[in-house]
Every structure is written in C-alpha cells, then in structure tokens.
Write a structure and sequence with these properties.
Layout: H1 12-21, H2 29-50, H3 54-57, E1 65-71, H4 80-89, E2 94-98, H5 109-125, E3 131-135, H6 142-152, E4 159-161, H7 172-176, E5 183-185, H8 192-201, E6 206-207, H9 216-229, E7 233-234, H10 242-254, E8 261-262, E9 287-288, E10 291-293, H11 306-315, E11 324-325, E12 331-332
Parallel strand pairs: 1-2, 1-8, 2-3, 3-4, 4-5, 5-6, 6-7
Antiparallel strand pairs: 1-10, 9-10, 11-12
Helix pairs in contact: 1-2, 2-9, 4-5, 5-6, 8-9, 9-10
Domain Mandelate racemase/muconate lactonizing enzyme C-terminal: 77-182
Protein name: Galactonate dehydratase
Organism: Halanaerobium salsuginis
Amino acid sequence: MEYLLGKDPLRIEDHWNTMYRSGFYRGGPILMSSIAGIDQALWDIKGKYLNAPIHQLLGGACRDSIKIYSWIGGDRPEDVGKAAQNAAQLGFKAVKMNATEEMQYLDSYEKIDQTLARVESIRKATDKYFGIGIDFHGRVTKTMAKILAKELEVYRPMFIEEPVLAENNYALKEISSQTSIPIATGERMFSRWDFKDLLSAGYVDIIQPDLSHAGGITECKKIAGMAEAYDISLAPHCPLGPIALAACLQLDATCYNAVIQEQSLGIHYNKENDLLDYVKDRKVFEYKDGYLKIPQKPGLGIEINEDYVRERAKLGHNWKNPVWRHKDGSVAEW
C-alpha cells in the first residue's frame, strides 16, 4: 500500500480501485481486509475534514437507529435460555446463538435434538416474538442442514445463518426448499463479485458482508445496493471492535434494506476487555429498547482511546480460532 503515501485522502473511489485493480491477484480475505481497513480510515478522514458523519457523505440517513442483537452462549452453547432472558432484561429484542457443536457429514439425531432443546429454552425464557438468530457457523453439512432447518421451523427463528460454508452456496437451493426460515449468509464473502451469483440465484434472504473484510464501506455500500435490487435485506457481520461497528452503523444509516446489526458487547470470546474500553465516549453505543442510534459526530462518529490501544498493543495479539476434531480424529469445522 505504499502507493497511498502522499496521495489526496479524499479520492476514496480512485484509491479503492487502484488497490483492487492494480494487482494481478484479486479478492480473498487478506487483500480485501487490508483494503477495508484503509477504506474505513479514508472515510473517517473525509468525514472529519468536511465536519460531517460518513452517512451524510453517502446520500444522508434513511433511518435514525437500527435494531441490534446480542450474542449468547459460546462455541459450545450451554444455558442459552438463561442468557437470552438476561439479554431481554438488558433491553435486547433479539439474540443469536451457535446452533451446534461440531457435526459430522452424517451425524446423529441426538445433536439435532440438542439444538432444538436449546432453541426451545430461549423461546420459553423470553416470548414468542423475541428474535432468535441461529448460526450454523459452517459447522453443518448440507445433509444435516436440511434436517435442522426443517425441524427448527416450529420455533420461528429470525434467521438461520451460514447453513453451509460459502463455497457450498449451491446447496442453498435445496436447503431453502426445505424451510420457510429466512436464510442469512455472506460473512466469508469478500466482494460484490463474490455476492453476484448468490444474489442472482435467489436462495438467500439476508446478506451479511463484513465491512472489515469485504472491502470496507465503499464496497459494502455497493453490495447492499445490489441486494436491494433483488429484494434481499442487509445485516452486516460485526463481532468485532468499535471502529468496525461504527463503520457498520454509518452504512446501515444509508441502506433502506438494512434490518438488524450484529455487535460484540459481551460476546463470549471477549475475556479481558470489551469494545467500549476502546472509545472515549462509551455512550456512543448506548442502546435502548433493542435499538442503537446512528452516531452523528464527524467521520465514523467515535473517538478512540488511543492510550488504551497502545497499552493493549504492548500485550500483543495472537488470537486463533480453536482446532476441533471429531471423535474419529478427523478435523472438524469450527
């Protein structure tokens, strides 16, 4: 990214195209995450330069706030009924949980029943209209996803997420024919070209691009517009920090088809600190009645506590997802 040194930071579209199109190899998580980080920074610079929140530079807001949900349970979800009840008491109107532990290509109905029991416990602990997102997390094969999707219908979930891995999106045709539950996917897709076939095929209801991995605000605004043309809604993936969440909220403000926003307050893998620790004004992400207001300050609308960032940086960061194995010793999807 040496190309950017000394350039005008306000020429965001040109910089995006140069970073993407000037290389022989394109797309993928590494390049698109790098572009995303730079893109978010450029939009923040431009917003602060023009003394306006980013959403004002993208055509203005079409909403004042957006519904959010809370993560409950963990990688191996337990006691999610109580966790959902706690989330409801905190003011959330929806939660999301991992559906299953690891699952083989052809697994037992015991694991199906365990998932159903967990979802039932949430429904009993809240009410029949409380939103329940169920994340298959790519752990489930097409064979088992068809069974799960059909069995879960009785609990009327908000959506099922990533019923199969993105490389198996062809299977969504068969899965969607088995259920009326809305299907969400897209967190492991990185550009409008990745989403093109998914949208035109018509077997997804909610797309979940991650603004920190799918080319940033510039690219995800285009992906969201493509989805709207296909009558498909937007729910950006964001189990990340305050900059990522602020970027999502600025985009949500301008997208008519944005329906709900993921965020990481209290998420299970934040063990030592939380996203609010990194911002100077903790009220910027204060929610009420399950909704979060769109930040109105210039740029991303947040001010980072840079001293705390430097303090945490001294400790280093080397997070890796766990490696799971099935009982037979083969590697399992996490």
